[in-house]
Amino acid sequence: MKAVLAAVLIGYGISMILGRKEKEQPVWKRGSFWLWKKMKKRGLLPRTWMTEKYFCQAAAVLAAGCLLALTVQIIQEGQLDNRTVTALERPEYGAGSTSWEMEYTWENGEGLRQQEKMMVQVEEQKYSPEEKERLLDEAVKMVEQEYLGENSSAGKVEYPLNLMEQAGDIPAEVSWSSSHPQYVDWRGALGEQIPPGGAQVQLQASLKLQGAARIFETTVTVYPEKLEEDESMERQVRQTLAMENEKEGEQLMLPAVVDGKTVTWRTPEEEPAKILLVLTTVSSLLFLWRGRQEEEKRQQVRKEQLLRDYPELLGKLTLLLGAGISMRRAMERIAGDYERLKEKKQTEIRYAYEEVRNTCREMEQGIPEQAAYERFGERCGLLPYRTFASLLVQNLQKGNQGMQKLLREEADRAQQQRRDRAKVLGEQASTRLLIPMILMLLVVFVILLVPAWLSFV
């Protein structure tokens, strides 16, 4: 394995040396680019999809993976060579046995070293006979103290017994047997057939610890289990139903009286109204959430379109003002051109031109020109349009002198901002493309490191 990895890296290094003249390529790419040209010249590559880009990327990933794998293997072999294994740690008391995959080497009759793998089973730590006796004595005492549970004495057992399967932290196995399982089972649960006058039951616990054993025996007198009123009623109803089920007939008669109490039976009410209410509420909330999302998306699209059309709108207005047309007439001309294109379905809805059209209609309806321009900036809601509206108002107050220059400067500034936004969007797109590349690199690392780690462990 090491030889194969080293051969790949040596070959990649030789190709980098031979491709050192490819100075227009990055350093890491020169060797693979030189190799790609040579293989393409000899017709050794598929012509349809194996481009220089994919070939160089694949070669770089292969070289990086081989370098990483070789490094891991060298580190692993160094750790194994520097570690002489003469003993294996046994598991803790009561933890059970474990297995280790080991390698052993020896010299055969011909003086050659051979290596084999073997699974070595390691048993848990063993107690001495004295420790076993001491731990079993402690376990018996613990069982004797805890087996009654909530009962006050063995002469009157009315609650389930606490028949533990392990005595606390002592790793001794405890198994129980009962002389009358119908009264008390091996878990300590009381049966339903206990006579009212009580019954004696012999219990035996067998404790085992690494081959040593101890027996604990006791006798308890059990009585019908004390239950809460609802639990007692449920048990009696079940017993009555069991008796009714033993009878013949086409129908099971439900008991009307149980333990002197009147019982009324009815089928559970279905609640489709509640289900429909919940579903309707959830659906309404989903529709509201969807409407909010769509509105936010529409506002974002509107904002981006307004910013995108701003330089174009300023350019048209500057051109018309330069031709000697007044500001109001220029606005009407821009709105009219947009209306004609829209009627011919040669353009989609453009929010900036829609607001220009609305401004012209307001002026036609008698709204003062200055107020119409101010409302235009407020409706657009963006800082560039507010600046534009203030320029229009300034034009009304001070005249056309210098207006064309101001609009041209604003148009240049808007174009620069548009280029900056395009640059930012391009950087964001390239950043998003890094995520799948990083994920692919992580997959390569996992493929290389996990087998090495598993073989070492």
UniProtKB/TrEMBL annotation:
<feature type="transmembrane region" description="Helical">
    <location>
        <begin position="433"/>
        <end position="454"/>
    </location>
</feature>
<keyword id="KW-1003">Cell membrane</keyword>
<keyword id="KW-0812">Transmembrane</keyword>
<dbReference type="GO" id="GO:0005886">
    <property type="term" value="C:plasma membrane"/>
</dbReference>
<feature type="domain" description="Type II secretion system protein GspF">
    <location>
        <begin position="316"/>
        <end position="451"/>
    </location>
</feature>
<protein>
    <submittedName>
        <fullName>Type II secretion system F family protein</fullName>
    </submittedName>
</protein>
<dbReference type="InterPro" id="IPR018076">
    <property type="entry name" value="T2SS_GspF_dom"/>
</dbReference>
<keyword id="KW-1133">Transmembrane helix</keyword>
<dbReference type="Pfam" id="PF00482">
    <property type="entry name" value="T2SSF"/>
</dbReference>
<keyword id="KW-0472">Membrane</keyword>
